[in-house]
Amino acid sequence: MDGTFAISQSDKRPMYLQIIEQIKQRIAVGDWSEGRAIPSIRQLAVDLQVSVITVKRAYLELEREGVIVTQQGKGSHVASNGGLGKRLREAQATRLAAMLGIRPKELEHRLREAGDRISEKETI
Amino acid sequence: MSDPAIELSGVRKNYKYFSLDNIHLTVPEGQIMGLIGPNGAGKSTTIRIILGLVHQDSGEVRVLGHRMPAEQIAAKWDIGFASEDMRLYESLTIGWHMDFMRRIYPKWDAAYARLLLKRFGLRADQKVKGLSHGQRVKATLLMVLARKPKLLVLDEPTTGLDPVARHEILRELTAVMADEGRSVLFSSHNTHDVEQISDRVTFIDRGRIIDSMDKEVYLERWRRLHLEVPHGVELPVLPGIIGVRRDGRLAIATANAFVPDLAHAYESSGARVHSVENMTLEEIFVANVEYSREEVEA
Amino acid sequence: MRSSVVGQLIRKDLVLYWKPIFTATAAAAAALALVLAGGETPVFVGVILFFIALILAGHMLPLMGIANERKKQNLAFLMSLPISSIQYTTAKLISSLILFLIPWLTAVIVGVWIIDTRGIFPPGVLPDALILAFLPLLGFCLITGAVLVGETEGWGIAANVFCNIVYPFFWYFMLKVPALMANVKSPTVVWNSASLTILAWEFALAPLMLGLTYFIQSRKRDFV
Q: Which of B55, B59, B7, B49 is nearest to B28 (CA)?
């Protein structure tokens, strides 16, 4: 199920951040749908071969951001507060744009143009 | 809240040329603790005291609730111990040792043992003397892992192993975590492994514990600040900075209790902060030891 | 539960060291066969071989079975098992005794039978023969004790050398005591106070040495 998490110590970012990113990634692309159960902290720790405390830190942060929900005795699941996937995708796009040096206003403008071009092609 | 798996308080042990001094160590149940220290720091002695093989001169040792060394027999039923200087019987086979363990320990899991044989690439009919170093280490660990003990105490479990073997062993060690009633204490030179799988990390040097904390706390608190100090600027002494190394106009400040305010404080004093970097556990360890030795000598 | 771990340790020693014991027993058997064959030279050689076999068994066993275990670092493995150092010592003493007594008792019993019934030796030689036969047993106890207490091969070797020096002195001493030599040629077994006293001492020394070993071992604070 989760054999494709790639956590690397040689990555500059701390391990817990990598875990957070990869969970958000799965939600963003739709592999992990809203409300779906996710592995317990211990189980993910075993699967990834990292310490429980690192996974715990990632989950706590994700819960703080409203991305996942953990219930005592019931485990954790993806938050189902509507449009989570879309919000995460947008957040990703914005981060990507920032990396490319494109400001949000300009990004919005360019996306609108690109959207129009695609619609034109489709109607032809 | 259950008993800690291991609890050492005020433990002292004197040898002719070396002493363990005032060791306080706690491994809560369900956690993995990594013990890092240079050679001769006292890791093996501490571990042997935990096992009841060496009698401390003073201080209390409790393992799985048992007082050591008095109750070592009871404790050892639930402790799996493997150390670098431990050997199986050369002239006998892996299979003989597995049988031996099976006859002694009721909790021996024969199916898991066979699975480990396969995973580790070993055969039951192999004689111990014919094994390579890595195979021998894996065979010894197999004897310990297949018992599914409540507490694993391992002295250098991955030292001298090739990357594949190391990965195989880390995989089995982390699998132990699935059961929150089981705990692990392991000592290692391989800070990479310790950083990856430990919940808590303890640094030991020259017979003293110099630090013991949650791993994530270490990673959060320690930072390296690269500074540029223009002429005439005095770097302030700040709390949370364990030391500063100067080289002309450049300086590296090592923080062991980092908060963003520290960077601001430096900037206010006229220095420029070029970067604030995370530190690996190895870098934290080396810095910690260096500064603690300076302190002792001062 | 406790006795079964000790039992497994004893069993382990029997598995590990049965071959040299078998060899020693076979050598003693061959020696006795030579003696039975009759004729001055075979008897002479047989008697010498007999004692050599027993001495080798008594001396080699503790060195192999105990000193080696520490040297080859098997001891840490054993002490990780749910036993105390006293239990380890117990298991060791029991297994070593079993392994030694098999060839020794066999050899002594058959030897006594030969003296008693085969007419090769005058029966009067029996007390002295028994006194001599006990020497390897005492040597075994001493070396076992030295190796357990001293923890190194060096102690075992030193005890080994000590015994090898003491034996000839003892034989010389025996030759010089008239009470011991007086009845050697007699057609019946004659026990006098000299031979009985010496045998009594030998009988007592063995458990005494083992007991002392046990005592010292139990006081150790650092076992591995």
A: B7
- pLDDT tens for C2-24 read 458 999 999 999 999 998 888 88
Residue type, B246: R
CA pair distance C98, C139, nearest whole angstrom: 15
Strand order in the sheet with B272-278: B241-247, B250-255, B223-228, B272-278
pTM recorded for the entire structure = 0.87
Q: B278: which chain A residues are within 8 Å (Cβ-Cβ)?
A: 12, 14
Report chain B residues whose CB lies below 8 A from the CB of C7. Answer: none
List C residues 68-97 in contact with B (Cβ-Cβ < 8 A): 72-74, 76-77, 79-84, 87
Residue C1's pLDDT is 45
Q: Quote the minimal CA–CA distance from B3 to chain C in Å.
A: 21
Cβ <8 Å between A9 and B174: no
Determine the Cα–Cα distance for residues C205 and C222; give it in Å rounded to an integer: 28
Whole-number percent of chain A with pLDDT over 70 = 95
Q: Averaged over C116-136, what is the pLDDT?
A: 89
Residue B83 contacts C where some CB pair is shorter than 8 Å? yes
- From CA B50, how far away is CA B121, in angstroms rounded? 31
CB contact under 8 A, B54 and C222: yes
Note whether B216 contacts A: Cβ–Cβ < 8 A.
Answer: yes
**Is residue C221 within 8 Å of residue B54, measured between CB atoms?**
yes
What is d(CA A16, CA A50) in angstroms, rounded to the nearest whole number? 10
pLDDT at A123: 67
Per residue in A11-26, pLDDT (tens digit) is 778 999 999 999 998 8
Helix (H) or strand (E) segment spanning residue B191: helix B191-197
CB pairs under 8 A between A and B: 48
Q: Is B215 on the interface with A (CB under 8 A)?
A: yes
Q: Which residues pair with B186 in a beta bridge?
A: B34, B154
Closest-CA residue of chain B to C220: B55
- Asked if the Cβ–Cβ distance from B174 to A45 is below 8 Å, we say yes
pLDDT of B174 over the 80 cut = yes
CB burial of residue B156 (10 Å; 0-12, 13-18, 19+): buried
Site from B84, B86, B92 to mutate, C interface, most C CB atoms within 10 angstroms: B86
Which tens digits make up the pLDDT trace of B224-259?
Answer: 999 999 988 888 999 999 999 998 889 999 999 999
Among the listed residues C130, C5, C136, the one whose alpha carbon sits nearest the alpha carbon of residue C62: C136
The interface pTM score, or ipTM, of the predicted complex is: 0.87
Q: Closest Cα to residue B276, out of A85, C21, A12?
A: A12
